[in-house]
């Protein structure tokens, strides 16, 4: 029985007991809709045990906040938060993204770790430095938690019990197809409900060496996609919530990727003689050449592909979600997810939690973001955001509908947004030990760079998959042992 199921069952049993002995029958608690945010914020009870959040303070306090989002956007959101809570002053801590975690280390050493902050990439650094605050009682008592995307609730429960980080930003993996090239090649565009094997087949079909056409180019990799979509995994490398498994889909995809690179299905790699021969420029991005049919990348590339540089070349890149696994039961898809936390030393953890939520996933926070996307202008009077910066982390359809109005008028965007609500975070941000495993084993162990070794034909992915699986699981267990504060 999982922690959450047990907790809900216990709550039901306690409720039955209370009713049975004749106590009040007032229907309050976590099952209440909670439409009145102010009522929830000002509820005067003990918090998580009764299913509602404790009251926000009415004292004058200051909270500090740090993330690498657009600074002006952070200032805008801080002002909106302070309008909602006039007694709270929010100070934005400006830090360079380069060396972000080093900057946090310096702040922490001086006792100045922000009340709310994002950690960059490697959660192992946050664990080792004791940066992660425990906000379980607030998260589990908060009615808004139920509105989070289903796959975004569990990440951050690193030890299975304490909620110590939460998703704060979401950019899905995206698969872009050059619609004009498909039309030129007399090939039908796939269904928005395409499958993984259909994508692989299409990549091969669209490879036409005699015309210099490559089936695909990558920012994201098949070996990242395949285990998540085909195994209904909740993390990279077949992570199922308890362990990794690289022996099936990762191994098959790693070998297939290598074959595609060697055989010219994949566009030539950056800064190689092959790229020079194919494009006349060894450092050109293949997606800008008109010779690539499919680009596996990230959602933020929507803005890049809308630029005149691409449109004027006759390129028409349109977004598809990562395809579903052929026999999958979920719509889980890889995504770039950033995570935030509250400082374990904050003097105002309840208010810090509310600030983290506002900048991350709350409906009120997303209303403010949408307003910023529509109205924020630079010194030249141009909109700062040509398209929404990320996707919502909540199910609220009003927010998704409003965001849709800020995207191009094309059915491809309708199709994409409808199918982009089951993100799975990449490993390093959400899985203890993963990033350390990558640096010490996957990219720097006895096989050297594993992916390069497979591509060069030095090893077969299936031959090393058991060893990699064992080591990945060992690193996870070792990281959990460090999470002891």
CATH homologous superfamily annotation of the largest domain: Periplasmic binding protein-like II
Number of helices: 21
Number of domains: 2
Helix content: 40-55%
Give the overall shape.
globular
CATH architecture group name of the largest domain:
3-Layer(aba) Sandwich
| Termini separation | 26 Å
Structural category: alpha/beta
| Overall average residue pLDDT | 90
Quick one: how many beta strands? 9
Largest sheet: 9 strands, mixed
CATH topology of the largest domain: D-Maltodextrin-Binding Protein, domain 2
Beta-strand percent range: 5-15%
What is the string of helix and strand elements?
HHEHEHEHHEHHEHHHEHHEEHHHHEHHHH
Low-confidence runs of at least 5 consecutive residues = 1-50
The gyration radius over C-alpha positions equals: 24 Å
Q: CATH first level of the largest domain: which class?
A: Alpha Beta
